[in-house]
Amino acid sequence: MTFDYTSFYRHDLPAPAMRWNGFPEFNFVGGHNDAACVPVDAFIAASESVLRREGTSLATYGLNSGPQGYRPLREFISGALNKRAGMKTGADDILVVSGSLQALDLVNAVFLEPGDTVIAEEGSYQGTLQRFIRAGVNYVGAPLDDDGIRMDALSDILDKLAADGIKPKYIYTIPTVQNPTGSVMPEERRLQMLELARKHDVPIFEDDCYADLTFDGTRPRAIHALDNDGRVIYCGSFSKTIAPALRVGFISAGWDVMSRLLAVKHDAGSGSLEQMVLAEYCTAHFDAHVANLQGVLKEKCDTIMEALNAEFGTAAEFRVPKGGIFIWVTLPDSVDTSKLAVAAAAEGVALNPGEEWTADPETGRHSMRLCFGNPTLDELRNGVAKLAEICHREFGVPVRSANVER
Amino acid sequence: MTFDYTSFYRHDLPAPAMRWNGFPEFNFVGGHNDAACVPVDAFIAASESVLRREGTSLATYGLNSGPQGYRPLREFISGALNKRAGMKTGADDILVVSGSLQALDLVNAVFLEPGDTVIAEEGSYQGTLQRFIRAGVNYVGAPLDDDGIRMDALSDILDKLAADGIKPKYIYTIPTVQNPTGSVMPEERRLQMLELARKHDVPIFEDDCYADLTFDGTRPRAIHALDNDGRVIYCGSFSKTIAPALRVGFISAGWDVMSRLLAVKHDAGSGSLEQMVLAEYCTAHFDAHVANLQGVLKEKCDTIMEALNAEFGTAAEFRVPKGGIFIWVTLPDSVDTSKLAVAAAAEGVALNPGEEWTADPETGRHSMRLCFGNPTLDELRNGVAKLAEICHREFGVPVRSANVER
Questions:
Q1: Do the Cβ atoms of B247 and A38 come within 8 Å?
Q2: Engineering a disulfide at A384: which of A307, B55, B228, B395 sits with its beta carbon 3.0 to 4.6 angstroms away?
Q3: pLDDT in tens, A57-78
Q4: Average pLDDT, whole number, for chain B?
Q5: Which of A44, A62, A102 is opposite residue B267, by nearest beta carbon?
Q6: ω before A180 within 30° of 0 (cis)?
Q7: Among A152-161, B234-243, B393-402, whose mean pLDDT is lowest?
Q8: B43 has a pLDDT exceeding 90
Q9: Measured between alpha carbons, how far is A187 from A80 in angstroms, rounded to an integer?
């Protein structure tokens, strides 16, 4: 006899999860990273030294650092943000969180109520867009070009909202290695964005999770760094730079916002062993590690672009990513990428259909996001070839592939 | 110029957090544990072996184990539950979570809506009670005696709710080392509880976080183990057995509930390094570790009871805890422990006032929870002496202390 829970569940639960069946053979989804780049030996050394020195502090919640997270890690983060992103932030301004997803959850818990309005890029991170939907929030998609959000369009959106008497709670942006397009917003445009935010009295929520992974190793200063008003709340993560299975991200915010974030944070902190090992490792190795990772990811990006060109020819249009681990590919109007995703999944090829990555699902109908961080170079080539084959079979596109008429 | 966020915040935010100022000198709050018992050397060895063997899997979210958590850890957990608590559960029934707090959050997210009713012990974990308040849920406190919830009282509560047409969403209980009283519910009473739950068609949510820490090393089978219907959802944690700064706990539930928990879990998993090191360490050392920890905590418990008797005499009444890291002390009616907590905090003594640990705050007005896991034996003695001094000054109680008229 099995107890029937049906009548006990909330009335508004999402569909139950499916059982996990392992990773697909060709895995172009998820922010996975290059396995060979995980610094295993240095992690072992870092674990030993930090545990030997202060392992007994694991006996207390939050170590001896309080609810904002392990202080040496916050010192590293603020130092890296100052050096790499031009920010002026200190360890007291940093909140360590369990990945940038928790950064989104906490900021949203402080600001968003059902019926609120936010502005986000028209193509943006699925995890962010889904959170807006779950929060019952209206989000307005700001059009993108090769340099990120178009400022003329953002200005129009802000004007129109103001005319309608609507004040957005924030402008959410991923300006550096935009997700999913891989663009980098130039500094001049960041200043224009701040000017618009000032004019309309709106805060900015800057998500900089990929910012250390530009292929040329350079990046503009963070919007947070260019702001003098304290209107920018900033988040980042170690998921993409070090390892996604470590659930460590961070928020930089002043005490006004910080004190509110802490008041809605009910989890007794993020895993301390991970914070300790990260602090120990990153303080010594972060810059060299990401410099190497940039090169590895660039080679993977070049490889998947070559494969797309070879297999899809002119049927696949994409912006050349400036960094990161994904590429945004647009196929002809005859291809519905949500249907392609289903057909491909059945044959071991996983991809993100564009409708899940766009504020207006229709604008993503013929696009898809392909992640290239985790597959090997051969898997990238073979996976794209297999995807072209499936796409040709399902939609007659691409007609020609690698100069061979299909 | 500082941006003013006031009008952007949610209208219903809790009060902002205070800045953290370090731990108090005599810290009788929080589930901290004995620092010397953190197995530092074995953790270093476990880190090295597991990272050497499979550290590169950190490059993928969830390692290669999917959303329920690192499979070797789930294997260990299910094996330990079977061996130690008499449960029949497998790795597929285990969800690794970020401490038992996330277990509470996920179960509540699946079951509770505002206006719902739950039953909990009249004295219970503050984190649970606060979650009920935040969820807008009515909770009915079930009276306790030396063996946990009184079944005559629970029967009356269920009858009364039924007469009012109210079906509780679950009965929440900490049957093994009850928080805050430290009692252990005998197996016979567990069977009675299941019988009542069957009669009234109600699920049970069993929180077994302290169950490995009985001072005599024995424990009754879990309620989950005695149930044949699948009506018990079970959670546990490594916070108290290994180290609270590791944020790793677990839920055991069948696929019906598990698939619902996974569908409302949006965090991309718990920290994997902690899961890997725990699995490696616990598989080899868990039983010996907790056997040693039981002895260390028993000595601390004996020490704080001696200190309470010496300093407070008959003014302090307490049940002798059967295990765990806290003791529930009741003072004369003239003492308001919330006021005592404020006065004591000002002098470096932290305690949990009883009103925060009781369903009806009035029943806890004269009681307090003192945690003894983290302070040294000397700190326990000196902290209780200082507390008695402060209590005497503020409330004239205790009148006599250590045979010396104050």
A1: no
A2: A307
A3: 999 999 899 999 999 999 999 9
A4: 96
A5: A102
A6: yes
A7: B393-402
A8: yes
A9: 19
Q: Which of A223, A219, A201 is CA-nearest to residue A211?
A: A219
- On whether the CB atoms of residues B120 and B139 are closer than 8 A, the answer is yes
The residue extents of the domains of chain B are 22-38+287-405, 40-285
Residues 6+ apart with CB under 8 A from B260: A5, A9, A13, A16, A17, B110
How far is the alpha carbon of A230 from chain B, nearest alpha carbon, in Å? 5
Average pLDDT for residues B81-100, to the nearest whole number?
Answer: 97
Contact A9 B33 (CB under 8 A): no
> To probe the interface with A, which of B37, B44, B61 has the most A CB atoms within 10 Å?
B61
Selecting from B16, B22, B269 the residue whose C-beta is nearest the C-beta of A260 gives B16
Encode pLDDT of B286-331 as tens digits.
999 999 999 999 999 999 999 999 999 999 999 999 999 999 999 9
Rounded distance between C-alpha atoms, residue B56 and residue A244, angstroms: 11
Contact A32 B61 (CB under 8 A): yes
Which helix or strand (DSSP H or E) is residue A163 part of? helix A151-163
How far apart CA B137 and CA A136 sit, in angstroms, is: 22
What pTM does this model have?
0.96
| Min Cα separation A402/chain B (Å) | 31
What's the whole-number mean pLDDT along residues A46-57? 98
Interaxial angle between packed helices B187-200 and B151-163, expressed in degrees from 0 to 180 and rounded to the nearest 10:
10
Q: Can you name the CATH fold of B22-38+287-405?
A: Aspartate Aminotransferase, domain 1 (3.90.1150)
For an interface test with A, the pick among B58, B96, B97, B106 (most A C-beta atoms closer than 10 Å) comes out as B58
pLDDT score, position B403: 53
Predicted confidence at residue A15, as pLDDT, reads: 96
User: What is the percent of chain B where pLDDT is above 90?
Assistant: 96
How far away is chain B from the Cα of A329, in angstroms, using its nearest Cα? 23
Contacts of A102 in chain B (CB under 8 A): 267
Predicted confidence (pLDDT) per residue in A246-287, tens digit: 999 999 999 999 999 999 999 999 999 999 999 999 999 999
Nearest to A35 among B17, B59, B62 (CB): B59
Contacts of B5 in chain A (CB under 8 A): 203, 256-257, 260
Topology (CATH) of A40-285: Aspartate Aminotransferase; domain 2 (3.40.640)
CATH classification for the domain delimited by A22-39+287-405, as one of 2.40.50.140, 3.90.550.10, 3.90.1150.10, 1.10.8.60: 3.90.1150.10
And the tokens for B121?
């012990």
pLDDT score, position B399: 87
The whole-angstrom distance between B198's CA and the closest CA on chain A is 9
Cis peptide before B175 (omega within 30 of 0): no
Contact A5 B257 (CB under 8 A): yes
Judge: A101–B267 Cβ closer than 8 Å, yes or no: yes
User: Nearest by CB to B36, which of A56, A266, A277?
Assistant: A56
Its ipTM equals 0.96
